[in-house]
Structures are given as C-alpha cells and as structure tokens.
C-alpha cells in the first residue's frame, strides 16, 4: 500500500536552519523586521512576474489556538514555466512546489529568510537534465531573499540515506475524485483548515506545457504544527501539511505526503515522537480514505 520513494545521493548546497546539518536550506539574514521583510519579498515576487499563491502567518495561527510562536511567516509562490519541467522530470517534486520562502525572527531577534535549495530538490526527487533551469531558479530565489546567503557545504546523504521522506499510497479512481475526497475529509475535520489547492497540471496547461494530472492540497492544524515550529522554527517551511495526488507514468493514481519523522530529522526536532506519530496516522488515514 505504501512506499518511501528511492533517493538520489548527491551533494547539496544548503544552510543549517535547525540542529540538523545538510538539510537543504539556504539562509539569508535581513536587517528589517519580519513584516517588513515579507512585504519586500512580496514586491520582488511581483517584479519577477511570479504568482503569490498564499501567505501564511504561522504565529497568528498559533495564537488562534492559545500558543505562542515568534514571528514566522511563509510565502508560497511559483511560475509554471520554471516548475513544470521539474515535475515532468519527477512528479513527486510537486510536493515541494510551488516554491516557499520562510521569514522568521529567531531567539536572538534576528530576521532570517530561508528557502529550499533547488539542488536539494533535485537530489530529493532524483531530477536530472535540469541543471541550467535549477541554476536560474536558484538565482531568482537568492535575489528574492536579498542579502548574502549562507550555504552549507555539508553532504545531506545522511538525511536522505533512509529515503527521500515522501510516503506514497494508492489513490482512488482518478486524481480529481481522490482530491475531492481528500478535501471533503479535511473540511469535515475539527481544527483543520485547507490553505490552498494547487492544480499543477492546469497551471502547466496555462503556459502551453503538458503534465499528467497532479494536484497538491495544503492544509494545517496549528495545535499539531505549532509545537514542531517551537522546537525548530525552520520546520515552518515544511508546514502546512501537503497531500499530493497524481497520476504516475503507469496511469495509477497515487497520494504522497511528507513523512513527519523525515521532517523532524531535517529540522533537528526531538522530543515530539508522540505528536509525530499522531500526524503520521492522520496523514495516512486521509491519504487512503480510512
């Protein structure tokens, strides 16, 4: 029923955003506040012709359930011309797209901007033949982040050694039907909010490209996610949760999601095993429809 997809063991340029090394994150420090930095990045997103999908204020969501979190805001944005070829090369890349940029205030009150290194995504999803495109994406992300970026030279193979952290299960009769079923389940669940639904295939078609049916549903529950970010704020780049519904090259419908244990290892989160198990059980149940 389920599997963790194989990984590509490559060196990845990243910055250590938590206690883990080689976690594929690039970091830039901002001399402005979190809100001011967020607005600056939004402006640069518009200037570069990118589409802002959503802005998620993790700290506000934490406060809505009576929890505290230092200022932490996620920007989700994309460009089908850049992202579609990566998903054509490896469909599971869609679980990390659209692009994300996390702006947060750390314990020393410094404002940091972090994003996934495109080289990390290539290694995680075994993308080949896209080096020039990945370099272009990296340059754009660096410009959006602003300032001098910090890239660790650590080898992430220890993180990826047990698999790339994408768990997949069999879906339903079609991508649309499975995505509808998942959204209906989420809408009826207490404490869960759907943040966005991204039809990657429709976005590809809008720029004259083809992609097999591929839909990502982003959703969250602050009561479960906030403690992970309290343990390591960079976990906010992998939250909210995502369920990826796609038709693979054999015509089978699959549902994929990030293994919570992988996310914990990536961001150096400890002492949350019970919560991680709860999240894993919920994701599996929603994915397979039980």
Automatic annotation (TrEMBL):
Transmembrane segments: none annotated. It holds the Pfam family DUF302. It comes from the Archaea. Residues 56-118, 198-260 form the DUF302 domain. InterPro entries: DUF302, TT1751-like_sf. PANTHER family: INNER MEMBRANE OR EXPORTED, SLR5037 PROTEIN. This is DUF302 domain-containing protein.
